[in-house]
């Protein structure tokens, strides 16, 4: 057992400064699988090392996707290691051989968590979800299912289910993304409106959105050039500006 702080310090540099210089990186399998099972930020940081062992050294991890699915909680859009996590999740979900129920579970869970996510995370996760739908056409039923649930209580998707295959995600619809089309941030509403049209075959490049911050969004808005605002073309009369109103007879703005 290591202190939490030490786990984080090791795992941040593990995939760059330790694994490439080991003669037998497979000796780290137990350490990384234990770290991956701890949860929270430690699990996120262990993903880098596990990714190298899975892809380069044939590590088999039977419950890997179940654990990855369990890491999706509301904090995932706020943690410091968000960019690293979603970059690796994108790689893990890139295979076209993954079953539709698994990808649908990830899409649905990310969509549900997006309801409470900040705008900078939403501008990243909506294209991320669209990319998953492009890679796995069987999941497009989530977008095109007519007569979706009228409210959350009618949604067949089981958010609390830990096993993706039992979550009933493929029976649901992406009403969460549709609700984001009324988001207070215009860029988010515009991004969510993409699902109203047929998706292009070309995937969106999300690499530049992974580390988008609230400060950058605010700075972008502040630096926008002011445009001419259309004014009332008819002179206002009276207290409430209505013609032939009793207030126009007795009150004046002069």
TrEMBL record:
Cited InterPro entries: CCAAT-binding_factor, Noc4
Residue span(s) of domain CCAAT-binding factor: 43-192
GO cellular component terms given for this protein: Noc4p-Nop14p complex; small-subunit processome
Native organism: Cephalopterus ornatus (Amazonian umbrellabird)
Residue spans crossing the bilayer: 31-54, 85-107
Lineage, broadest ranks: Eukaryota, Metazoa, Chordata, Craniata, Vertebrata
Protein family according to the UniProt entry: Belongs to the CBF/MAK21 family.
Domain of life: Eukaryota
Record key words, sorted: Membrane, Transmembrane, Transmembrane helix
UniProt-recorded name of the protein: NOC4L protein
GO terms classed as biological process: ribosome biogenesis
